[in-house]
Every structure is written in structure tokens, then in C-alpha cells.
Amino acid sequence: MTKEKMLQPFSFHVLKSDGAARRGELVTRHGKVQTPAFMPVGTQGTVKGLTPEDVRGTGAEIVLGNTYHLMLRPGAERIAALGGLHTFMNWTLPILTDSGGFQVMSLSDLRKVDERAVTFRSHIDGAMVELTPERAIEIQTLLGADIAMQLDECLKLPAARAEIARAMQLSLRWAERSKRAFDATAHNGYALFGIVQGGDDLSLRAESARELTAMHFHGYAIGGLAVGEPQDVMLKIVTETTPMLPAEHPRYLMGVGTPHDLIEAVARGIDMFDCVLPTRNGRHGMAFTRYGAINLANARHANDSRPLDPESQHPAARTYSRAYLHHLTKANEMLGAVLLSTINLAYYETLMAGMREAIAARRFAEFCHLATAQWERGDLPAL
Fold it and tell me: Which of 15, 95, 124, 378 is deepest in the core (most CB within 10 A)?
């Protein structure tokens, strides 16, 4: 029996539930992922400033890479020739790759969208680069992503309904093309997710979810949120859209979010998340803790010998003083960004683990109440 035939196909199982919240398990070519799961963002083949060992040490079981950025530099074909993205970045666990749809929004001044493709002017050297749904799948296949995403068009909100409808319909047609391309090249153990679009319009979200479900993807993402709309609008869309997605498949809320966002979305049946917030904020002196966010740039921390959290499971959070982290932040020292990025990811992963345990014990509501109460109480009491 060949190695390829021995590999398990991609699968997802809901192990426990508590209300709409689900405790599950993804099985991929590169291992299992416990859900709800938070994926650190490694856009260019690296979670900024952290080694793969650092990332794994936070509890992460899967990371995210980006098709657009890796397509430009160093190139998908080069990565494939060097053994694929797992080998290239020395990450042995699962990888999900974003298709480049977010860059359709974030790089709107550098791109043109038509029926066939999105054409970018490279932000690196100005060269014109075309990304079709088929090419997006080809790149993700070359990278060796365990989970690939369809190419879609993501809009910033607020936007006119006609424009939201146009982008949603285009994303559906690109979903069909992405699925055909994936099915023509798919190997055992890999998966493709469709992306529900429709902005803040519930009827368009319903249409998108219905059409995507009929295409039979391995999983379904809710995209186009956390792009300018208020949190209550985002949560309303998640509340209404999630039940439209097949219960036997994983549900992924893209680009979200704060710790509170994660808890609220898990309560609504979401299984997977990614966001730059823990690492981006860490690079700017912000620490996430079970007592809320702490701005280490604030002068009040200059003489504070306390750790961020003496009971944290992560050594850096209970070893380094706030005064030292304040010093590193004010001095713009690289170590400050590295330590706070690691601390923040560890907090996020601990939060996800806590939610998994609470769902399994059917005490998710109690967990949410206690977590919220700690955030509202604020900082640690004085030692």
C-alpha cells in the first residue's frame, strides 16, 4: 500500500455540543486539529517574529498562509520545488491558505476585478499579476495546503446593496470554478472550503450559503466580516448564517477577532478562526490576558515588578515583569514584540482550550460568564 493510499481523507467530527457551541476534531493530511481552533496568521510563511517552535509552544495546531503574498514572493513553484510550504517554513502540522480574496479588498487601489480574474499590480515591484480561481487553486496545491480556500471578492463595509450582490454572485461563480479546479487535482487528505459572502444583507447571505452548500465543499467559511461593520452587525450575520451551513462540516469565521468575538462566535456554532490581532497588537506593546488587554507602553507600568499573569500556562507571561516589557516596548526592542506576540497567541490558544473543555463538560455558558467577569474586573490586584 502506498503512502498516499494510507493517508486518511479530510474529515470533521462534532464530538460534543452545548447549545450551538461545538467541540470537534478536524483530521487532515498533517494531523488533527481540535476545535474550536484559533489559527495564527503566517501570511508570508512565518508568524511574524516567531519560530515554528514558538508558535507550537503556544498550543497552536494549525497556521494560516496567504496565496497572494506567497505567489509574489518567493513564488509557489519555487516553494513546491523546495518541498512545499510545510518543509519550507519547517511547520509539520496542518496549514490553511487564504486564497487572496482579502487582498481584493485590502489592495483595492492596486487591482482590477472582472469576470475572469482579479489583476493586481504587485505592491513589491509593480508587475502585473493575474489571479483566476483556477490559478488560486493551483498555487494552494503547489504550496501543499491541507485546507485551501476558494477565490472570492471581499468588500469593505458599508457598501451599497447592489455592489454587495454583484460581489456575492461573482464569488459564487468563482466558487464553482474553484471547486472544478480542486476536484481535478485533489489528493487524499486535502480539503477545499467555500466562502459565504453577502456583506451585511441577510437575504444575500442566505442565497450565498444555499448555493455554496449545493456545491458540496469540505467546509464553509463566513467571509467579508470584521471589515468595518459594528460588532453587533457582525454577530447578527453570524447568528443568522451559521444555521444555514451543514452541521456535519466545519464552519470558519474569517479574520475574527477579539477574545470577546471568539466566545460570542463559538456560542453561535463557529469552529475555526484566524486573526492578526494577537501578533499585530503584540508588536505594538499590547498584551492580552484573562484580565483584559494591557497597554505596556503606558507609563504606569515602568516600575511594576509584577508579571502579566502569575497563573498563566505560558512561561513568558509569568516570568517577565511588566516593567521590563514596558522598557522593551518604549525602546522599540525586537524582543518586546517577540515576547508579547508569543504571550498573546498563548492566551488565545488557552482561551480556545478552555472553551473546548467547557463545551465537553456542558458548562459553556458558565465559562463565558466567568471569562467576561474577569475582563470586566480588569487588572490583577496589587501583590
Answer: 95
